[in-house]
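Internal ticket #5521
Category: modeling
Description: The requester needs a full-assembly model to guide mutagenesis choices. All entity lines are attached below as received. Residue total reported by intake: 736.
Assigned to: D.W.
Attached entities:
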Amino acid sequence: MRKVAVVGYGSSNFTKDEIPVETLLLESTKQIFDTTRNISQDLIDGVIVSTNDNSKYLAAILSELAGIKPKIAHSVEHLCSSGSNAAISAYSYIASGLADVVLVAGADKINNTGQVLEWDKTRGEFTHPIFWGSMFTKTHKRKFNTTDEELAIVSAKNHKHALDNPNAYSHKIHTISEIMNSKNITDDLRLLDCSYPCSGSSSILLASEDVATKFSDEPVWISGVGQKTNSASFVKNELSVLSSSVTASKYAYDMAKTCPAEIDVAEIHDAFTVCELMAIKDLGLSENENASDYVRDMFNTGNRKINPRGGLIGAGHPLGATGISQIMEIVMQLQNKAEKRQVCGVKKGLIHNMSAAATSSTVLILES
Amino acid sequence: MRKVAVVGYGSSNFTKDEIPVETLLLESTKQIFDTTRNISQDLIDGVIVSTNDNSKYLAAILSELAGIKPKIAHSVEHLCSSGSNAAISAYSYIASGLADVVLVAGADKINNTGQVLEWDKTRGEFTHPIFWGSMFTKTHKRKFNTTDEELAIVSAKNHKHALDNPNAYSHKIHTISEIMNSKNITDDLRLLDCSYPCSGSSSILLASEDVATKFSDEPVWISGVGQKTNSASFVKNELSVLSSSVTASKYAYDMAKTCPAEIDVAEIHDAFTVCELMAIKDLGLSENENASDYVRDMFNTGNRKINPRGGLIGAGHPLGATGISQIMEIVMQLQNKAEKRQVCGVKKGLIHNMSAAATSSTVLILES
């Protein structure tokens, strides 16, 4: 299998503005052309678009707008983890030898009607993800005596991190008490426990080992790939563990021949505050049973190891873009280009992206 | 690159009934479990759904319905060629070594709102594909003096072939004069020049060379893969040549180290009658300039080399399923299992699947 590297990236701002998905896709893609050495349209073999938008043929549309005439072009959708799935699809085109250079562009716009899973009727009236976020939170509280303050610290930390992310949706400090006193959405979730739906786009450029250094002095290698889909229905899921994330991370660690202790920085899918606590444990990043002491310590010491760009809670969650923006952040960290967000001495980074109450998960490991 | 084979297949009937896309996907997939030796859910590493339906998370939904817990799962969309794009994505997962066995299931339901490309405003009021079908037809008539009778023969032939396809939408003979006298849709297109939008699903199972013979005594190998997306806008396209098909077929022939003369049977994307004439020429299958004598000869002699299952005109065109049903037909031909549709002595077969006025095309070459 040929090695595959990330050699370029770009992102729009994540915003509450209603922006057409085609415009968003072009914005983050243009940045790749503006910032990647030696890139030109004719060198791009594939264009994969990651989105939950109902618009069709977006890979052809983006290609036309960007002046690319690719061999491979199509959209990929898998709800909130569409972005990482599209990146792995691009990885496989390159690893297999079908392509040398593939552009992956993810975008969604706020109020996109495609963001709610309509099929799963087991949830009755509760079609919004807040339903499972609330169930996860109640379970976590019962099992680990997790407090509202411990949940709020996740949000406070990620909002603080997002201050230094120029593309983030939120650029405002929220104190722990402010978060704890924000509007109750359910018994267990307040407004500031939730990630922000928003408009946004992120793009990355992947290249084979044969050509990667043409485009970048610091290619970042995808060394571990893990994916797992357990079900589509929430009721078939466990409430106290992100079991698809456990499986996906095991695959990724094994493929990268590494272990959680070697991960220096991680992008975690914090759709709700409880998800960050669960993922830190389920990915093996902390031995602390409910991870809350670990997060509190990071918050108090200013350690940015988890969600340095602010996570989905601080940076926002434009579904199709999220996994790609997570990859972009880890690439910047590995290239020591994350400026105020930079974690010191990063050699390995992890991306955790999941869908629909963790009925499916993706984990990627990147190395410089 | 590891070799990849088709080792199983299944199809629903193609019908005008409104059937939920999840039901359709499960029906063709169940046939694979019913007919493929040694297959079991735990052996399937990936589930890729090809569709233009607006429903999300369909790969997870199909997986749950079929009892599969795959690593890889997502939907692929690229309008009318979604099916072949999904198959090539599955091919790359296997060729790269990320997966050994991948299920590809494509479906669309009649009256799916996602079937019209809304973005391309260059067409003004003409949002329906009939617009470009009509422009292609007018151009063909001007350039090659193609007659209405020559176009009608394509439809008569494909309707005749569909009689022997148990899954086909149409099971009715249409005479040449009946086709020529069917309702005028535009100046240049009559109702029976058009493929039938319909509900339908087709699934195929792909496996690596390491495991293919576990599932089939007659694995059919994907030896050539060609793809090209030139644009999304019809006005950027040429009218007298399917130029993306020309490019895609060149890639596929080169990869398979073959040439048009070696192709024994072909599935051609006859969205409209003129498309079959154009594709036969542009894929190099006939040296006849407008291919009409070639088609007339096939019709008169009962030669089934082109579109043995009836094409999109006879079998119907459920967008996400079409490319996969084309692959299934060529696999059956190569396995000598196509019964009344069987072409004699088939060693190599070709699939031609395209989108949106041939702004993009896929060509695959299969061998026994």
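Resolution: model delivered.
Comment from assignee: Chain A touches chain B through 57 residues (CB under 8 Å).
Ticket closed.
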